[in-house]
Design brief:
about 120 residues; 3 helices; about 25% strand; globular; DUF1428; DUF1428 family protein; Dimeric_a/b-barrel
Length: about 120
């Protein structure tokens, strides 16, 4: 079974194109270092819920949208090795992302797959 890193982040609507460019560059780095897949999705039908929701989870504001992303790996061990390479890659160094979204409100985690159909 595969291993997946998942991410949810609020992105200001004014920064969507900048986020897309950043994601495309980052995705290329992840794939080059061995990820099986790199996926980024913009919220299309994710209303702000009364108790829980994707927008509520990242405290999205009226002028923001939610991005739901995941990266797929062969295993947790491969993920750990790939992430180490990605984090050391000079193409992803620096704080440019801070101008695109608020990383303090990002939700992320690693998940072991138990069912694939």
């Amino acid at each position: 079974m595969t291993y997946v890193d998942g991410f949810i982040v609020a992105v200001p609507k004014a920064n969507i194109e900048a986020y897309k460019a950043m994601a495309k560059a980052a995705g290329a780095v992840w794939m080059e270092h061995g990820a099986l897949a790199y996926t980024e999705c913009l919220a299309d039908d994710a209303p702000y819920g009364e108790v829980t929701s994707f927008p509520r989870s990242v405290q999205a504001k009226d002028d923001e949208t939610v991005v739901f992303s995941w990266i797929t790996y062969k295993s947790r061990a491969e993920r750990d090795a790939i992430v180490a390479k990605v984090m050391a890659d000079p193409r992803l160094q620096g704080d440019a992302w801070k101008q695109v979204f608020d990383g303090k409100r990002m939700i992320y985690g690693g998940f072991e797959t138990f069912l694939e159909m």
